[in-house]
Amino acid sequence: MTANRFSAATAIGAGLLVAAGLAIGSGAAERGVRAASDPLYVAECGSCHLAYPPGLLPAQSWRALLGGLDDHFGDNAELDEIGRRQILAYLEENASRRKRDFGAGGDAVLRITATRHFRHEHDEIPVRLVADNPEVGSFSRCDACHADADRGRFDEDTVRIPGHGRWDD
Amino acid sequence: MAALLALAAGPLVAPAASPDGAIDQLLEQYRAAGAGDFSAARGAAAWRQRVTPADGGEPRHCGACHGDDLRAPGRHLRTGKSIEPLAPSANPARLGELRQIEKWLLRNCKWTWGRECTAQEKGDFLQFLRTQ
Questions:
Q1: Exposure check for chain A: N or C terminus, fewer CB within 10 A?
Q2: Do A78 and B76 touch (CB under 8 A)?
Q3: Which residue of A has its CA nearest to B115?
């Protein structure tokens, strides 16, 4: 059972959902995650992949990632030093402080897909729908299934797996 | 009178509004760095050249992500994200920003060929791309 809190809010009533949305927008929510908002981060990192919400990883993870951009999971994503520092500052400031966004051993991981939270939320999804699905290919491509990923919305109601449809567990 | 004014303003506005300003500026820098004349044909050939990475993986070339038709969108090899057409004829916003061009040439030469491109190679690429 991995239905998250937003699904529950939908069941209770639209009013709650709106309230939750507002809370995310204002940054007051402890639940959910805020969409990436820094224009430089969105422009630079978002040109190759979804500009992942900074709150999905702890600051240690972001520091490690931004320290190795010349080999960014096999790609070169070098930035000039001014831009790199500016983006890192934004990511650190908005990073997660929750234990669930670390790895299974409590370590700061490089991949969002390796965090406890991510693994918990996706543990029931068969490989054939993601890695073996040519329209998805990888769990790293949030927006392949989460239509509103760029707005920081990852709740189950918005999931549409290409070639499969809704996901309901 | 309006037409005359528009004509007069044309050349002043053009460098900022088209890729030519940024590309011309870069070609000038590359010449200053020792490059000779630039050739679109050489750039086109280099664009298609396939290079096997040092670790022995699949050979890489520019079209692996940008596609073979530069007027159509490309697709990032790993992330699958759509890449806007590179050809200025299809996408006038392309190749207009000097720093962006330099950033991508640095990253993409290193990834595709395993090294930085020379001033000559970069100039040939731009000479080729601007005609697309």
A1: N
A2: no
A3: A76
pLDDT digits (tens, 9 = 90+) for B75-100: 998 898 999 999 999 999 899 999 99
A-chain CB neighbours of B117 within 8 Å are none
Burial-class residue B41 by CB neighbours within 10 Å (0-12, 13-18, 19+).
exposed
pLDDT at B18: 60
Q: Residue A141: which of B79, B106, B107 has the nearest Cβ? A: B79
ipTM above 0.90, yes or no: no
Query: Residue B70 and residue B132: Cα distance in Å, rounded?
Result: 7
Task: State the best of B111, B112, B113, B117 to mutate against chain A, taking most chain A CBs within 10 Å.
Answer: B111
User: Tokens 């061009």, residue?
Assistant: B101
Closest residue by Cα to residue A121 from A96, A145, A97, A90? A145
User: Dihedral sign, CA of B71, B72, B77, B82?
Assistant: positive
pLDDT > 80? residue A54: yes
Q: How many C-alpha atoms does A157 have within 13 Å on its Cβ side?
A: 10
Q: Are B44 and B130 in contact (CB under 8 A)?
A: no
- Please say whether the beta carbons of A109 and A102 come within 8 A: yes
Residue A31 pLDDT more than 60? no
- CA separation for the pair B28, B18 (Å, rounded): 17
Count CB neighbours of B5 within 10 A. 9
What residues are paired with A58 via a beta bridge? Answer: A96
Which tokens in the block code for residue A152? Answer: 């920081």
Which of A75, A82, A150 is most worth mutating to test chain B (most B CB atoms within 10 A of its CB)? Answer: A75
pTM exceeds cut of 0.90: no
